[in-house]
Design a protein that fits this description.
Layout (H helix, E strand, L loop, with lengths): L7 E2 L1 E2 L2 E2 L13 E3 L3 H15 L7 H22 L6 H20 L9 E2 L2 E2 L7 E4 L7 E2 H9 L10 E3 H6 L5 H6 L9 E10 L5 E9 L14 H6 E4 L7 E6 L3 E2 L5 H16 L3 E6 L2 E7 L7 H18 L1 H8 L4 H24 L2 E3 L7
Parallel strand pairs: 4-17, 5-8
Antiparallel strand pairs: 1-10, 2-3, 6-7, 7-9, 10-11, 10-16, 11-13, 11-14, 12-13, 15-16
Helix pairs in contact: 1-2, 1-11, 2-3, 3-4, 3-9, 3-11, 4-9
Length: 367
């Protein structure tokens, strides 16, 4: 098979239909912003002002959502002037307030029940967080966040979360971790291209996943022929592309190109199928890039980052001896890299999930 025989790139109203995990519409444009939290505030205000008849009492939730957005922004701005360990505490409070915004927008009625973080760092533990009992009354923010992200965490699978597992889940720090020989395992985030395609008759949608062959010796790419990838993908033999390996989805769905209703239904199905492959997005100046997680953890990447932030924030508040040990230990470079690189990723990804839009960095942004 030749590359051009795989299928055409799917188009909707002359725009390429691409994969994004934000529940956005097929072919949706980018919402370019240099200030994702500022954009989120404006989005919430616009929604609030557009409501004329508040039958379902949405306005009250939006007022709360704007309040928590402002808190998130203020804590983050304060963190920019602070040093560790204070910085870690301020960052965690920024992130947990943004998570509350997400829960409110997804229908949770916060402020009506006792809310708790959902995590703790036992006095006898130095590197393991403990999950709270989600059925113990009130709302466990950590558990409910995982649930709305689509990767629910269950205490039955174990109540301990290891710090090194949390930080290994952050693609932002992978390269520095491997450069300093801090991760004993092979790299697990495989850079991939995901393309949503259609057949020649333009009446069926499917997708392809490809990666550069140079990663064959660097990573456990055999995972693409096992487990969930084996269930979802078929390897293609492409004779005119010697640099990449290509896989086609087993799943395809019929669609009507000119029907908005068809696009809404079918795009959602395609995205759901792609999401099962444990794809991790990374925002760059050139747009979103994707990584296939070859060794997926029990947590969503955003849940892992929230857990990481909880850990550094907690030891800053309650464990001065442990804080000194961690901040000056071998993981110091990873922690420093994470608190610099991860917040903006978190803000853009969360704003995209909350607004169901594709928030990205403008090319004109200069730092």
């Amino acid at each position: 098979m030749k590359l051009e025989d795989i299928g055409e790139i799917a188009l909707r109203k002359y725009k390429s239909v691409k994969y994004f995990p934000f529940k956005n519409q097929a072919g949706a444009p980018f919402s370019l912003t240099s200030d994702p939290l500022g954009y989120l505030e404006a989005y919430i205000d616009s929604w609030h002002n557009s409501i004329k008849r508040d039958k379902y009492k949405v306005k009250n939730k939006l007022v709360k959502a704007r309040y928590f957005t402002q808190l998130s922004r203020d804590f983050y701005n304060s963190s920019l002037q602070a040093k560790m360990p204070s910085k870690g505490t301020l960052l965690y409070y920024s992130f947990i307030n943004l998570v509350k915004v997400y829960l409110l927008i997804e229908g949770y009625d916060l402020e009506t029940k006792v809310e708790h973080h959902g995590l703790s760092l036992p006095a006898t533990s130095t590197n393991k967080l403990k999950l709270a009992n989600p059925n113990g009354g009130g709302i466990s923010i950590f558990h409910e966040f995982a649930k709305v992200l689509g990767k629910e965490i269950k205490n039955g699978d174990g109540v301990d979360l290891n710090f090194i597992d949390l930080i290994w889940e952050l693609p932002e720090v992978h390269e520095i971790g491997y450069a300093l020989d801090l991760f004993p395992k092979k790299r697990k985030f495989l850079p991939v291209e995901i393309k949503i395609r259609t057949n020649k008759n333009r009446n069926r949608l499917f997708y392809t996943v490809s990666y550069e062959k140079k990663f064959d010796k660097q990573m456990k790419v055999d995972k693409l022929t096992k487990g969930i990838c084996k269930q979802k993908l078929i390897e293609l033999d492409i004779e005119n592309d010697s640099k990449r390996k290509h896989f086609k989805s087993k799943y395809s769905t019929a669609y009507t190109k000119g029907s908005n209703r068809s696009w809404v239904m079918c795009y959602k199905k395609i995205i759901q199928d792609i999401n099962t492959l444990n794809i991790t997005p990374m925002l760059t100046r050139q747009g979103y890039r994707y990584y296939l997680d070859l060794e997926p953890y029990r947590l969503h990447r955003l849940s892992s980052f929230l857990g990481f932030a909880y850990y550094i924030g907690t030891i800053a508040r309650y464990r001065p001896t442990l804080n000194e040990k961690i901040l000056k230990g071998k993981f110091q470079p990873l922690i420093n890299e994470a608190i610099i690189s991860c917040p903006n990723q978190f803000f853009y990804l969360m704003t995209s999930h909350i607004t169901k839009q594709i928030c990205a960095i403008p090319m004109a942004k200069i730092e």
